[in-house]
Amino acid sequence: MKKSPTPTALEGVTVLDLSRVLAGPWASQLLADLGADVIKIERPGAGDDTRRWGPPFLNDEKDQTNDAAYFLAANRNKKSVAVDIAHPDGAKIVQSLAKKSDILIENFKFGSLKKYRLDYESIKTINPRLVYCSITGFGQTGPYAARPGYDLIIQAMGGLMSVTGQRDGDPGDGPMKVGIAVSDLFSGMYATTSILAALRHAERTGEGQHLDVSLLDCQVAMLANQAMNYLVSGAAPERMGNAHPNIAPYQMFKTANSHIIVAVGNDDQFYNFCMALEVTDLHTDYRFKNNSNRVSNYDALEAILIPILEKEPAAHWLMKLEKAGVPAGPINDIEQIFNDPHIQARDMTVAMSRDDAPNQNYVAHPVKFSKTPSRYDLAPPRLGAQTVEILSTRLSLSDEEIEALTAAGVIAVD
């Protein structure tokens, strides 16, 4: 794929990506979208674990030699170099690449890179300006530091599952995970923000630093209002299904044919909501006259609204609520959202190609830049696809040296 002719925000920045699965690759993909040159280090013969996390697999669901859709979601605009860091020569290759990089991202188990001299203390001696980002389940300090951490464990331990799911006593009650790996994704985004801040510091001072990103810390931080609800009140929030702990009505309602979401954010919107439902006296009821009262009398309000909204189909209510200026919307499945005319108008898919998958659609970067747009230069790479390119251009290794490393099993090429 041809390189974009438009300058990118992170042009000239090199990222050495030793991460795999989701949190680290999500961070490095964001940096790659913004123009950074990302070199993805992978284990020969296996690569990123998510290459096998399927089906579905690219091209043919039965062809497990191909890459899983999961891998494709987090690895565009990167170059794959297959190097065995457990081999001394492989570790030296990564050290040499780190010396020429601006950012290093890794999510190895706490302390495990030290034996290869790829830990921060070792790397900073050869590149003191490097921004070195470690992403782990529980961080570099504390009693849980040595534990492995996956998104599901973090959602559970970090409090998210305690506030997700149906209320106790309702059908299907019990803790529930979110449908995507939000702990990983938010950690990747926190990591990206922190990396860019540290990069600016390094560019200004020549001083790099170590960023310690913990999935559990990030999960606690993203509890947002629910965390503050507890810290202010002393009462742990409970599961409320599709209702909101601080706003009412802000929830899912069943209509005559499907469900819709209504999000009434203030008292004026509640008045308009009542007018649209033709219950003109509801907003004057003391129990519901302001948001605080509506939250306190949630069950009574819901009991009034449910039978009204069940009388007409979703399209009827969505039209009336839009006309009244009340925030509301359908509950789309993923096929429906990609067929939505607004998402299509916003160019939220982009076609990218590699030899075994021409013109495959991918999810686009969501931010629209007026001067330095995101790029789509490289489809997610096959394992080791750029090993020769990177070793020859970045480290000036000869063909003979590359052949010897390949024969020794230190590297692999696609």
Q: How would you characterize the overall build of this protein?
A:
- This protein has helices at 23-33, 69-72, 88-99, 120-123, 151-157, 182-205, 215-221, 224-233, 267-277, 291-296, 298-309, 314-324, 334-338, 341-345, 387-393, 399-407; strands spanning 14-18, 37-42, 78-83, 103-106, 131-136, 209-214, 250-254, 259-263, 328-330, 349-354, 357-363, 411-412.
- With 414 residues, it is of the alpha/beta class.
- The chain contains 16 helices and 12 strands.
- The strands form 3 sheets. The chain has a 7-stranded mixed β-sheet with strand order 6-5-4-1-2-3-12, with helices on both faces. A 3-stranded antiparallel β-sheet has the order 7-8-9, with helices on one face.
- The chain has 2 domains: 14-221 and 344-412, Rossmann fold; 250-254 and 259-330, formyl-coa transferase, domain 3 (2-Layer Sandwich).
- A hairpin with a 4-residue loop joins strand 7 and strand 8 (259-263).
- The protein is elongated, with a radius of gyration of 25 Å.
- Helices cover 35% and strands 15% of the residues.
- The model has no long low-confidence stretch (mean pLDDT 94).
